[in-house]
Amino acid sequence: MTRFEELIGEIADFICGYPLFLLLIGGGLFLFVYSGMVSVRRLPDAIRELRRSRSDTSGGNISSAQALVSVVAATVGMGNIAGVAIALVMGGPGAVFWMWVSAVVGMSTKFHEGVLATKYKIFHSDGRAEGGTMHIIDRGLGRRAHWLAVTFAFAGMLGTLCIINANQLTEAVSTAWQTHLPLPSPLFGLDRESTLRLAIGLAIAVVVSLVTLGGIRRIASVAGWLVPFMVGLYFLLVAWIIVTHIDEVPGVFGRIFAEAFNLRAGWGALAGIAIIGARRAMLVNDAGVGTATIMHGASSNTAPEREGLIAMLGPAIDSGMVCTLTAVALLLCADFDTVEGVKGLQVAMDAFGRGVPWGEYLLLIIVTCFALSSMFSYSFYGTRCAAYLFGERRSRLYTFFFIATLVVFAVIPLGVAVGFCDLFYALMAFPTMITLLLMRKEVREIIKLKLDTKRNGQ
Known about the structure:
Largest sheet: 2 strands, antiparallel
Distance between the termini: 64 Å
Number of helices: 22
Radius of gyration: 21 Å
Number of strands: 2
Helix content: over 70%
Strand content: under 5%
Order of helices and strands: HHHHHHHEEHHHHHHHHHHHHHHH
């Protein structure tokens, strides 16, 4: 297993290195400038549009607001806690700055995704809408680019299997269990700890199946009340840490900016920190990965510019707000000097335990909500990719496959989980970003015709 873990890590490091960094950050920055900084200029419009679209549903579809909440339910997940902790362990405080850069750039990228997903969505005979990168490619770029659509859909089936979420949630629950309760008797030839992780994985699979088997409407309904609860509670915990360590807060932000451009170890080290931050941000806000196109393509909205405005709020919430809260809390309370190897959630649990009374248990509740909400939305993403490749009837089998893998990934090592997740996310990102760059002119025309004209009163 050690050699296999190393091999997966080497492949992921190669694919997710400079090429992916340049594509996501460089390509996203180009779209940001080319669109006239749409994510900055149109932020007030996006907030107004979100209020307008809350009840805009029809048939079996969801509203644009529900699509955003469902996307945030997926992205505001384990990556916002475990992912940020991993970034700090691997890249230090400077990695946080590059996560912010990715958030600003990602808002523009998400705008392009929302616009194109809506413009090229398809409608089934029952009125149900469906979209995604694969449909954008087929309908926007033509059959010659069909192989890109297939690549995205195949990677989407595997990249949305909630590898890190299942693994890290199991780790958190297992640690809390072993602190207060005895390990269960061994089963199926496993040791006692592996048996506990297997039981936790089975419990997670049962809960997820109760929601995901109900389809997109049930997923959106559950996300509608779960997301505000978990973000609100998380904000209160971090606020407690900040207030009780208020004298140290300026120093935390000083370290973030200082180490983001630290050249003491050379340009190679600076590039490494930037890549680590962007790579973890990719797993947090999904901008340029293409998963959000699937959810926004399922909304009842038929106005591309409106959906684009709402879509771009996602990175502002997850990478901009939630990840910053996590980073500040960890830099105030975590003990990074004693961390060995690649660790994520355990670092955060220890930090919140130091900073808040009963903090590790309150964080466990939040982590459970984060992880489950991600699983709900990602099951829909993977099912849509499977339906594109194998047809609607067979896609139902993928849902059961998705649920079964939650048990598998609950017991495998974290290194393998991180490598697999990064690898397939990269294979989704390449087709998505290439498509967005090739079709950028269509998006700019929509900005000029629909947004600029409206603002000028024409």
